[in-house]
Design brief:
CATH architecture of the largest domain: Alpha-Beta Barrel
Order of helices and strands: EEEHEHEHEHEHHEHEHEHEHEHEEEH
Largest sheet: 8 strands, parallel, barrel
CATH superfamily of the largest domain: Dihydropteroate synthase-like
Radius of gyration: 20 Å
CATH class of the largest domain: Alpha Beta
Number of helices: 12
Strand order of the largest sheet: 3-4-5-6-7-8-9-10
Shape: globular
CATH topology of the largest domain: TIM Barrel
Helix content: 25-40%
Structural class: alpha/beta
């Protein structure tokens, strides 16, 4: 039931991605990279679960230094997420097989340099170290110029950004790259990836529903997107992003394999009636950017505390870090993004305040009660 894919094949360390190559299933370590023991344990869990690739986030020289210990001795190829500091590529490229950069973050550093200059530097660094590249476009961190050009047309903005960055890499004669276009709404993921595949049928695509949340809802959201895209021949590698306890990280790989097997064998699962009605909780899967491990417990607590509001058409976003948290909570009615000691509570784009982990749930409930009362 998965049609032949039209994409070219690229090399990522020992594995091939795209074309007739098997669809690769990957995930990301949900730990602080500088906690070497915990990060190595996450890589072990994912490798034991059958991951084809594992991604680790790097945001500082200390993270890059820790990566030297983390990367030692694993058979599974590693990818690195450059976060906001693209210059980290120089330190980590010799240690990994793939580099991921986000076009929406390139404006943060060295503002006097053009995007084209920064991309050229990333490409030459990857080329000299035999690394593949992922152009990772995220709906929660769209580059400012695309926001300005496309306004409320989110699909148009992220697809145009991905297409333009492909052209940059093509112009530099670099072919070992994939593209990911992600959002927390599976319907947008389907629309955006379908549009991109039509514009660039040759480019391998990495599928994912970011911040899908906790099982079972997070699995349902992911399955909705993957079933529709894989059945159209779209998707060469994929990741299931779930908010799960540390030792359950391998569940992401198991769910990814299960969805692949189901689609390959024509087993499609219908979406529950009115699945998108009522309260929608968005939660990120955690990664090395998370600065307080209480984030996972907080997401579970939010889910339990808000059960009384299940029938209300509201969105609550629970994000684990300062990188994606501020932007990806803007579209939610209520948003939480977590720091080392406090949680930032937002109402739409407005910051309500910063509260300790012990204070945040009552404050969230107060804001939620107000919104429900306002909606009548």
């Amino acid at each position: 039931m998965i049609p032949p894919r039209k994409t070219r094949q690229i090399q990522v360390g020992p594995i091939r991605v795209g074309g007739e190559a098997p669809i690769a299933v990957q995930s990301m370590a949900a730990t602080r990279t500088q906690d070497v023991a915990a990060t190595r344990r996450q890589v072990e869990l994912l490798q034991e679960a059958g991951a084809d690739l594992v991604r680790i986030a790097i945001d500082s020289p200390k993270d890059a230094e820790a990566l030297q210990e983390v990367a030692r001795g694993f058979e599974v190829p590693l990818s690195v997420d450059l976060q906001e500091n693209y210059r980290m590529a120089e330190l980590v490229a010799p240690l990994v097989q793939k580099i991921r950069y986000n076009p929406g973050h390139l404006h943060h550093h060295e503002k006097g340099k053009s995007v084209e200059e920064k991309v050229r530097w990333i490409v030459e660094t990857a080329r000299s170290n035999d690394c593949a590249i992922r152009i990772g476009v995220n709906a929660g961190s769209v580059a400012p110029d695309y926001k300005e050009r496309f306004g409320a047309d989110h699909v148009g903005a992220i697809v145009a950004c991905a297409v333009d960055h492909c052209a940059l890499l093509d112009g530099l004669d670099f072919v070992d790259y994939v593209v990911s276009i992600k959002d927390s709404d599976p319907r947008l993921v389907v629309d955006a990836n379908s549009a991109f595949a039509e514009a660039r049928p040759d480019v391998p695509i990495h599928l994912g529903v970011t911040e899908a949340g906790m099982p079972p809802e997070g699995i349902i959201k992911t399955r909705i997107a993957f079933e529709q895209l894989l059945a159209r021949g779209i998707g060469d590698t994929l990741r299931v992003s779930l908010t799960v306890p540390f030792e359950d990280k391998g569940q992401e790989i198991a769910v990814g394999r299960e969805i692949l097997a189901d689609v390959e064998n024509g087993r499609f699962r219908s979406v529950p009636p009115n699945f998108f009605d009522g309260l929608n909780i968005i939660a990120c899967p955690s990664c090395s950017r998370v600065e307080n491990e209480r984030f996972i417990d907080l997401a579970e607590d939010v889910k339990r505390m808000t059960e009384f509001a299940a029938e209300h058409e509201l969105t609550i976003a629970v994000m684990g870090c300062r990188v994606n948290g501020p932007g990806e909570t803007d579209d939610a009615d209520l948003g939480l993004w977590c720091g080392p000691k406090t949680v930032n509570l937002k109402r739409g784009e407005r910051l309500v305040g910063n509260f300790t982990y012990d204070e945040i749930l009552p404050r969230l409930k107060g804001e939620l009660d107000e919104l429900i009362a306002k909606k009548g």
